[in-house]
Specification:
This protein has strands spanning 11-22, 28-33, 36-42, 54-64, 68-78, 84-95, 101-111, 115-123, 126-140. By secondary structure, it is mostly beta strands. The protein has a 5-stranded mixed β-sheet with strand order 3-9-8-5-6, with no helix packed on it. The relative contact order is 0.27.
């Protein structure tokens, strides 16, 4: 296919969801859009989170518009310090005409720090968009000693 025939699609949607479903007509149903993940971990703030990684589970949904040709969609997860946490590439083909392409990625991340993360989307290695999300981690002190039932009320 020559480069004259190739038409790059536009990114129409980039959403973080709890779940997504596709019906038989390829119509997507998006369940609960997410932009913040809240976790509670046992231990003090001094505890190294690297040992207490919290799992972030979500679906990243992208929808590409009209285009023609073969393309590579890449998502990079950027940590709060700017480092790339992970990357994932997906190839797809658009035949032209009235045709869209949807990609659903089930994401399972082990996060070891709180802060603002971001999904960065690339099309053929060219940056297209980003979607930030926050991870909040609250710490609770573990209970020390054994659990004892409360004392019986005094009989008068």
């Amino acid at each position: 296919m020559s480069t004259e025939e190739r038409i790059k699609p536009k990114l129409l949607a980039l959403l973080i969801c709890e779940k997504t479903f596709l019906d038989e007509d390829k119509v997507a149903t998006l369940m609960r859009l997410i932009d913040t993940f809240n976790f509670t971990v046992e231990g003090s703030r001094d505890t190294q989170l690297g040992k207490l990684a919290v799992p972030v589970h979500c679906v990243l949904f992208t929808k590409w518009g009209l285009g023609k040709g073969e393309f590579t969609d890449e998502v990079r997860i950027i940590k709060p310090n700017g480092d790339v946490m992970t990357a994932n590439k997906t190839g797809f083909k658009l035949p032209g005409g009235f045709c869209f392409h949807q990609i659903r990625r089930v994401m399972h991340l082990n996060v070891t720090e709180a802060g603002e993360f971001s999904f960065h989307i690339y099309l053929d290695n060219e940056f297209v968009a980003q979607h930030p999300f926050k991870v909040n981690i609250d710490h609770v002190q573990p209970l020390s000693g054994s659990l004892k039932p409360p004392p019986e009320p005094a009989q008068g």
